[in-house]
What we know:
Elements lengths: L7 H4 L12 H13 L6 E5 L7 E9 L5 E9 L5 E7 L13 H4 L4 E5 L36 H17 L4 E11 L1 H12 L5 E5 L6 H6 L8 H10 L6 H8 L4 H4 L7 E6 L7 H8 L6 E6 L10 H9 L4
Parallel strand pairs: 4-5, 4-6, 6-7, 7-8, 8-9
Antiparallel strand pairs: 1-2, 2-3, 3-5
Amino acid sequence: xxxxxxxxxxxxxxxxxxxxxxxxxxxxxxxxxxxxxxxxxxxxxxxxxxxxxxxxxxxxxxxxxxxxxxxxxxxxxxxxxxxxxxxxxxxxxxxxxxxxxxxxxxxxxxxxxxxxxxxxxxxxxxxxxxxxxxxxxxxxxxxxxxxxxxxxxxxxxxxxxxxxxxxxxxxxxxxxxxxxxxxxxxxxxxxxxxxxxxxxxxxxxxxxxxxxxxxxxxxxxxxxxxxxxxxxxxxxxxxxxxxxxxxxxxxxxxxxxxxxxxxxxxxxxxxxxxxxxxxxxxxxxxxxxxxxxxxxxxxxxxxxxxxxxxxxxxxxxxxxx
Length: 321
């Protein structure tokens, strides 16, 4: 077969290239302490988008770090009591999707919460100074701030943990049976959620984004989803006088550095021809997961629909039923 990245034997041992900041653990301890101090001001508003006899729909919103209002779709079976729940996270630039896409899980007795990321294609706010979408530049947002707490993905990662805590506190949800799932950016956020909220019971991720930034750049794949890395270096540091500091700062929001905190079983999938989120970057994260884990490999597939994986994720999550 053709090879885009390292041979599989090397991928299975690869430990990543992007540096891990020395104060990484302290950084995230401080971030979680900040989250604890936030009053989420949760609001649930009934929604009539679907004509369903068995499912209740709600617009869920809460306040995240920095004061942003974050939105999620929330669905529950009518009469739900101590039900399992699934947290869903979307790909870069997208949104929480259609209500009807979640019904398979709700009809199996799950509550479902699907979050819009700040400033992307949905309703969640990015409070960086403007209203509406602020999509381009999310990876590099905050790089030039003196304090790495200004990195935008720090706030988005914390939003996932906040959503998990809100759902776990709902009387209709069993907090011991809550799972996270997503693909691409959503896969990264699913992993981040399980890392930052240790009560997550199961975690699934397809071709996760936001892993091993330096490796992406070294492979000359800082394009498409990662184009911001190339743009930043070409426009803001053309002589590479700050390149080492740039990648070290990105280490705070590198999924490979968060995943050792995960306690839940993890199901991942990788296409070995993925030229958007290269396989080695995904293995950098997978190889650092210390909990129970499984990787589904698709040798001929890239960053695209992976046949059968959605079914595998569904069956994986049915452990909580």
